[in-house]
Amino acid sequence: MTETVGGPTAAEQAADAATNGAGTHGAAEQGKTRTARSGKNGARAADKGGRAGLTVGRVFTTAGSHPYDEVTWERRDVVMTNWRDGTVNFEQRGVEFPSDWSVNATNIVTSKYFRGAVGSPQRESSLRDLIDRVVGTYRRAGIENGYFATDADAEIFDHELTWMLLHQVFSFNSPVWFNVGTSSPQQVSACFILSVDDTMESILNWYREEGLIFKGGSGAGLNLSRIRSSKELLSSGGTASGPVSFMRGADASAGTIKSGGATRRAAKMVVLDVDHPDIEEFVETKAKEEAKVRVLRDAGFDMDLGGSDITSVQYQNANNSIRVNDEFMRAVEEDGDFGLRGRMTGEVIETVSAKKLFHGIAEAAWNCADPGIQYDSTINDWHTCPESGRISASNPCSEYMHLDNSSCNLASLNLMKFLGDDDQFDAATFAKAVELIITAMDISICFADFPTEPIAETTRQFRQLGIGYANLGALLMATGHAYDSEGGRAVAGSITSLMTGAAYKRSAELAAIVGTYDGYARNAEAHQRVMRKHSAANDAIRANPASTTIQKLATITWKECLALGETNGWRNAQASVLAPTGTIGLMMDCDTTGIEPDLALVKFKKLVGGGSMQIVNQTVRRALDNLGYQPEQAEAIVEYVAEHGHVVDAPGMKPEHYDVFDCAMGERVIPAMGHVRMMAAAQPFLSGAISKTVNMPERATVADVERIYLEGWRLGLKALAIYRDNCKVGQPLSAGKGGEKKAEPETVTVVEQRPVRRRLPKKRPSETVSFTVGGAEGYLTAGSYPDDGLGEIFVKLGKQGSTLAGVMDAFSMSISVGLQYGIPLEFYVSKFSNLRFEPAGMTDDPDVRIATSVLDYLFRRLALDHLPYEKRVQLGIYSADERTAQVNENYGTDGDLDMDEFRSSVPASTKSDEPAGVDPAPAEVGSSTELLELRLGKAADAPLCMTCGTKMRPAGSCYLCEGCGSTSGCS
Length: 971
Fold this sequence. Notes:
Helix content: 25-40%
Largest sheet: 10 strands, mixed
Low-confidence stretches: 1-51, 259-264, 730-752, 893-913
Strand content: 5-15%
CATH architecture of the domain at 192-388: Alpha-Beta Barrel
CATH topology of the domain at 192-388: Anaerobic Ribonucleotide-triphosphate Reductase Large Chain
Radius of gyration: 30 Å
Structural class: alpha/beta
Distance between the termini: 30 Å
């Protein structure tokens, strides 16, 4: 895109169009940027045709053609059900979307973002309606506020923005889709920071403001350190309550608002400075509550997340973080003392061992994942507006950090959209996309509404923006880079540097047209200093072949940014963050969220017309091609991954390439420090911070947590949180694994519950079935309890005394004992059906015509004989008569069956047409996390979605539902 301050003539525009080759994706630099000094309001020409403003060149679109005309549209039915009980949560039929949008993206956009009552004529029914509503509002506001040189430029801006949204190149944060262009308040921000002072009026106002923000579906954070401690006196002579006691009231308020109709938890962050006298009480709050949860759970109370008894536990609606400064961290390194200071006088009222306090922080995080760490000195060293106040808190996910009573508008780019067919990252087009998106984000502040007047005032004065990206993990894997590698970090750092450099460059260009942010003059020197720090960090990147081109363009961009900023100032106090990209990541069909690596190599995917598949990530095949594997080798490896879920011992796979395919979960996981190092690679190029939780294995120690928190400080991070597997009790389906457990306090009574074996009586009913699978003959005898219910099995297969017969006897015995201890038959059916090994093939059973193994046949037969129809439906197991009845119900009898209609109802792509690594998903699986659980044989520490019941997946420091797009607290 070409931008100028003065309006070009018609001849100049025509020449530009001819030179630029309109509509070329990834075009080279189009023209030169001309800037002029301007005051706050920018230079304006007298006549409308020559007014100051941006001249927008085409990058993605073609002159004379609307973006909508370049895609194939189709009508779809969106019917979303609760995965657990089959009830319909949402239904809208005949919605219109591009044919290349996935079912998941279609479902989520239709159910979450379409406005108007379902079933009414006012209800949006096409993606066009949604994009037009939002983009049209941005275009009108841009014209009204003098952003464009001509009306033609405004139209090109409209088309470019539309094209990128239509092709899933980027997405605004959820509040934009919810509110912009509607009769509701035009709230565009997802991240809020509040403030509270040491007065009862301020504390009660804190409760009120949080409630208003929660009601709107957003979250907020604040620092409680101004509230005097419980070790200080009130003016009346009594002892103060302290911030922890007031946290209890705010927590109850958040829980009440959540349960009053919201389908997700209230998202909030509570921060306390490390030198606050009540810091030790704050550190232990959630750890003590977690111990309470364990006792109540063992006593038989329902303490799962969302359970009926979990509400009796306090402090569960907030993320807690400690603000540590360099003074404290150096005292930890040197094993020195550290002073806790009174809030009223600032004097030291208590001295503690820094190392002991730090150990307590790490131990609490080891126990229950809270508190996280925020590195105060680093945060404020990168602060562009220190003259207007310190940065003391963050939003709930820790990526937005700026002044109190402020907000941030987010948008994220899909990095995979900039990876060309040659597997090169198109840095030039990426930079131009960033410039256009930042322009739109800044325009939104002109018309935005805010939940409180102080937030509105601060945001309009400082115009904080938060551009970021998603799909980094997929990009690195696709290009053959390990997530935890120097090459991978160089690519991530270079992209982040270019993104922020391009964003601030555009901000400086906007300052010449519509003025700097109101607080710039007071903070000009500090803002310029931070820009120079970003530029210097870019020069320090250790480039590799994949990142060299990106870094070179970033270097040029930062040089231009500094020059423009010195002349014009900047329009925005903040430009970039890395958010979780939960719901919008699904809208863009991203494989990975934010800065996260891939969850696993095999994913769950919904299909058009119903049904689901388990599919090996497409990035796996692309990575294998980049690593030099021949097509036959790559296909064999993909088939192996489809069966095993990992690349270890895959045929022809080189061990030195294993780390390219490491994931967040699975057989090979990225080490905790690998996550920290990746964060450190991106942090110097972000105005804000990074929403990410560092996952640690269950066997990790408190010392490991201490090491992570120390390294985060040394590497220059702004915030860091950890999560140790199975550290929280309040998670549904948590794995019941053994291993070392932290000793409970002496006052805790541990109630141990053991399963009881229910033996069969001497005389019991049984039936025997003879079978043949792939030519192998055998017998299955199933014995039942007199009051019904399978209790034992015996399998005769192979000659007496043979190895096979002995193995089957032992297998039968273990299954029988398990049944008698209460393991449900459906669990065994889900585990052993679809297993593949010889003998396999045709059977002599009319209900199970083909079996992939003897065990597959046995457990399908047992399901048919001993499970009710409702449970078999969930497992996808039907008798021959039931299948016939279904066909008759759907298509009529044989005489009524229209074969043309029947053929048109069958998906065009059959198994043979699918790429390697695609198989039907197990019937009991509803998300990628549940598919991974099935492969690993243990449960993941993730909550169930409150809307549709599927297992959520990690997204930054929150959780995301792949089924309906709900999040655990991030918009």
